[in-house]
Amino acid sequence: MKKRFAVAAVGSVLMTAILAGCAGNASESNNEGSMFEQVSGTSEQSSENQDNGKSEEQKPQEDTASSGYDGFKAGTAKAKYTGAGDRTAYLETSLCLEKGKSYTMDEIISALEGATDYKKSSEPTYTMIDCGSDGVQELLVQTSFDPEFTLYMIIKDINGELTICFDQDGWSRNDVQVETDGTVMSSGSGGANVHVWDQAFVDANGEYHFYYGCEETLTLYDSYYLYNKADYKEMSVDGLDVDHIGIRDYYFEPNYEDRTHYYEYFMLDDNYNDVTTDADYDDSNPVKARFKEYGVDTYSAAQIKDMLDSRAAEIGYKK
Questions:
Q1: What pLDDT was estimated at residue 66?
Q2: pLDDT in tens, 64-80
Q3: Among candidate residues 196, 197, 308, 216, the one with its CA nearest the CA of residue 263
Q4: Of 112, 164, 184, 318, which is the most exposed, with the fewest CB atoms less than 10 Å away?
């Protein structure tokens, strides 16, 4: 298996609960509007909106970048593929683009069509965004392919050279959202009881940073797989109250072969609400004891929050 990937839709009510459970204080985010609102509109509209309130010394930089971006949109300029920030799974750019080589948008599309069974279904759309909110614009490109895939790319003018900083594919069962500040979130599901999401961002320098990912399992079946990078072992759940147990598996590496996994369990009521108390983290808890039998530590919700806060500080992620 080349890549572990989620392949089913996430209900909006459940995803709201998920984000509240693992992205920190969701109520604060809600007061400020959607944290991951899909960028939309034309590039011209976005450019006009972002010009407002900018200093005169910022605007020449934007004008220089825009000339290169206009050339890329017109098909006369090329963007360099480096492989950095590549998160594609089906529209795999790494299979058909050469690192260090530059391509027009038409060349990228033709290369993908030649390497996959998918064909372009609509013309690319372009939106100006501002990664890192530094007043210098970047180009977000979205291109749809049959039957249901969309390729997202962030392109930045770096010292006069257009560079692809990020690329990822989304589809009906894997939603990708990009904010106007370069923040990226994807979410999906591996079935009715398995949900995954991750967060990342492209900074003002055009560097891609993976913040964290999480796979959540609500209720358990015959066994649970404990991962250690590309290896795994199967943990029996016999004797546990499987209908009232949830597990979250956190990681800070984008590629599953490199991941260190941090497991948090939580207790559910009959309506799948989290009803975990401090007492559930005692060593006497049968779920914690079962993990211990297999040589795996578990972490409380507070410990996971500390990990996420430390990770955010480490990579400069602004929550």
A1: 52
A2: 455 699 999 999 999 99
A3: 216
A4: 318
| Alpha-helix residue ranges (DSSP H) falling in 75-208 | 105-115
pLDDT at residue 67, rounded to an integer: 63
User: How confident is the model over 43-60, as pLDDT tens digits?
Assistant: 343 344 444 444 444 444
**Segment (H or E) for 306:** helix 301-315
Give the whole-angstrom CA distance, residue 188 versus residue 212: 15
Which amino acid, one-letter code, is at 219? T
The residue with tokens 């391509």 is: 103
CB-CB contact of 214 with 196 (8 Å): yes
- Rounded-to-integer distance, Cα 187 and Cα 38, Å: 13
Write out the two tokens for 163: 């560079």
DSSP H or E stretch at residue 169: strand 161-170
Residues of the chain with pLDDT under 70: 1-67
Query: Residue ranges of the alpha helices (H) in 36-130?
Result: 43-51, 59-74, 105-115
- Tokens matching residue 73: 């949109």
Closest CA to 215 of 253, 264, 258, 249: 249
First and final CA of the chain: distance in angstroms? 33
